[in-house]
Amino acid sequence: QVRLVESGGGLVQAGGSLRLSCAAASGSILSLHTMAWFRQAPGKQRELVAAITKPGITNYADSVKGRFTISKDSAKNTMYLQMSSLKPEDTAVYYCNWRLIATSPFGSWGQGTQVTVSS
Asked: How confident is the model at residue 102 (pLDDT cuts 50, 70, 90)?
């Protein structure tokens, strides 16, 4: 069982940048079909932000395309989310998650990391 831990959140001004990290505290990300970043803003449902598959295929929510970049480093057993040109509407708790194969559900949720963008 893979357990992921998010870090890197914080307070940043609009237009700024942050890099989130998602490290595997147990297990290896090499075995995972998909890794993804989600976010949940106050009063809203959790939404998919970006995903990356085992061979490195990526996809993004329309709201972050061109501003966020998802990547992974198998040697460090870590996934990243580089966020640029941040907007106040990006304010949310960000979570990472995984699934073993394309058709399996995502795993358990961690505590996430808070990102707050001030205007």
From this structure: confident
